[in-house]
Please model this.
Amino acid sequence: MQNSEDLVGLAHTVAESDVLWMLDDDVELCRMIETYFERLGWTFRSFHAARDFEFALLESSPEAAIVDLMLPGKTGLELVQSLQVSGFHFPVLMLSAMGSPSDRVVGLEAGANDYLAKPFLCRELQLRIVKMLDIRRRDSTAALPLRPAAARYQWERLVFEVGSRRLVSGNLCEPLSRGDAALLEALCTAGGPISRQALLRATGSLVDTEETRTIDVRIFRLRGLLKKLNDGNDLIRSVRGRGYQIAQAPAVIQ
Model:
């Protein structure tokens, strides 16, 4: 791990709102990271148990968070999933001693925006956090040909309720994760095919499509759910060399 004293050549423009939280039961690691970021001008707060992190969220929230995967009690994966359900939007970088491709996919599928294996360089951690914040602050969908935003999208009996992140068909109701809801909304609002990379960005992930099959896994799962609720009709189709698109344009309900 890079020594916290080695700060030469690290460029970063710190905004007043750059508040970073870290959740890790390794107290010494938290102190090292805290020293590093505070000397760069960040506001830093560390926690060593998920319950303390969640309790602090009752009063405020960070611009970004670093969350360890393996925690006593509630795991980092469970915490990230609960953040999505609770409606928190700040980006999360997941730390773990387990860095295999399958481990990274699990973390990203749970809702983390980025994944970094231990041991790591402080500089890499900093650059990844900055990148997460930059992506959050800019309009990542500005270049896409979009239809007007909607409160609901409807295909005959099947309705996608954007705000509540759920699919409704007759008496059936299926909740969607934040990532899957963002994915479906991107497909619904686009005027044509969307690349896998653009879809990955729409879900908030920083990982390149060459490094992960996360989007394909999510599309497969979402496709199956839509077919189940839409009398077996497939609403998502792949477009060779261009990505994915909605096969049947929905009615847009403002």
In short: Residues 1-17, 139-148, 206-211 have pLDDT under 50 and may be disordered.
